[in-house]
Amino acid sequence: MGVVIPLEEGKNKQASVKPLVDLTKADMERVNQLILSKAGSDVQMIPEVANHLISSGGKRLRPMLTLAAASMFGYDGDHHIKLATSVEFMHTATLLHDDVVDESDLRRGKSTARMIWGNQASVLVGDFLLGQAFKMMVEVGSLEALDVLSTAATVIAEGEVLQLSVAKNMETTEDDYLQVIRAKTAALFAAAAEVGPIIASTNRAERNALKSYGMNLGLAFQLVDDALDYGGKAADLGKNTGDDFREGKITLPVILAWRRGTTEDRAFWREAIEGGKSDDANLERAFNLITRYGGLTDTIARAQHYGMIARDALAPLPASPWKDALLEVIDFSIARVS
């Protein structure tokens, strides 16, 4: 099952993270070394579980944002390495916890840590990584950076709880959904981008520009992920397509199909999502309803909207290869559905 979402003609087709990868390559090598070092422990299971996910092929976009956001303002110290590593550890810890809460079997094409070592180990190793992240933040010595990242950690946890509260509830509104993804996903993107200019000692306007960029990029990124769950491929998504449906998650494609559907359609959604009848036949019907009512195309339209806000946030900043690379990340994030 898959679908091609039409994007604006001639736009986003060649978008890539390669410019950002190339610009941050040297610093990312240092980040990767620090990741391996800080994931180590005398307790054998900790590096085993941590490295299972750390080495599973993620793009590490969030730490690259931190590196780029510092470098574009001329920062030439070492603190961005520790902050980027902290960001990646926060993200990895969230994934470990998410897979337990969502009872996920697959992550980035591999069995989740919880499937191999169990739920308890996944949660506890996630806590270990969070502890290491905060130790590195303290070592950096920037109270402002510590405040931004610790606040993000709190917001992410709130988003997790909020998602639990709206799970399998077909009365969830688009505003509720946006509140969840703003907390769960976009908050860390925003923090990752904001701490760069903080350690580069920039002015408030430049710091706010990167924060806005990160927040809106994160919203666009998650909207596309949620569309891919119904219209993508497992290899692109990093998990099984249809997992959100099977887990009873209320994402925007479902919200739109529910609100635009007939009484009969809404009865189906209640049975499938609230009643837990999420077999393959119902997944196929859900996909057909989402397509019929424009749930995928309109979800991507929302992503493009937030992508444009992210682009406008960077508009006042001076031209540079760093800025160009960050702008292309927006296009790449949305082009994943093409």
From TrEMBL:
Presence of the UniProt keyword Transcription in the record: no
Keywords associated with the record: Magnesium, Metal-binding, Transferase
PROSITE patterns: POLYPRENYL_SYNTHASE_1
Pfam family, one: polyprenyl_synt
Cofactor annotation: Mg(2+)
Family: Belongs to the FPP/GGPP synthase family.
Designated name of the protein: Polyprenyl synthetase family protein
